[in-house]
Design brief:
The chain has 163 residues and is of the alpha/beta class. 42% of the residues lie in helices and 18% in strands. The longest helix has 18 residues, at 115-132.
Length: 163
């Protein structure tokens, strides 16, 4: 199930992120990219107060970031997106702690998840991946090395190219 996320509502709920930081939005997007990779999900994240000339959509893999122009809000943009989804809104989860946006999502039969709950879900997904680690590739056997050398025209005894 894809997510519609109120970005500035989520940022203060994630340890290490701060709305006062200049690059808070890009750090959230990076975390969401990793979340999407791990969970195989799609995310649309909405940010308020885009500076003049910076408003609009930017794609970061499975993350679509909407920078809402000044004079409007992410809340309005999320409600408009829910309306555009029509009956398909039931297939989406809206992430916000804003009660008015939650009510709009519920009216469209979308799932609702508080920013605090999603922050915990995000952290768990990222921690599980970092603690799993990836297994290093197995070393090839001597027979496999000899076979590859033979395929690429190398003499396995001397490591030199055959003519």
């Amino acid at each position: 199930m894809p997510y519609l996320i109120d970005g500035h509502n989520l940022i203060p709920k994630i340890p290490g992120l701060n709305l006062q930081a200049m690059d808070d939005e890009i750090h959230l997007i990076e975390l969401l990219q990793e979340f999407c990779r791990i969970q195989r999900r799609q995310v649309e994240v909405y940010f308020d107060n885009a500076p003049p000339g910076q408003a609009g959509l930017r794609r970061y893999g499975q993350v679509a970031a909407y920078f809402v122009r000044q004079g409007s809000t992410a809340d309005v943009a999320i409600r408009q997106r829910l309306a555009s989804l029509g009956n398909g809104a039931v297939n989406w989860t809206v992430v916000t702690s804003d009660l008015a946006v939650q009510a709009a999502a519920q009216a469209r039969r979308a799932q609702v998840l508080s920013s605090e709950s999603f922050a915990q879900l995000l952290q768990r997904a990222l921690v599980q991946t970092s603690t799993k680690g990836e297994r290093p590739p197995a070393e090839p056997s001597p027979d496999e090395v000899a076979e590859w050398l033979k395929i690429f025209g190398q003499d396995s005894e001397q490591g030199t190219k055959k003519s």
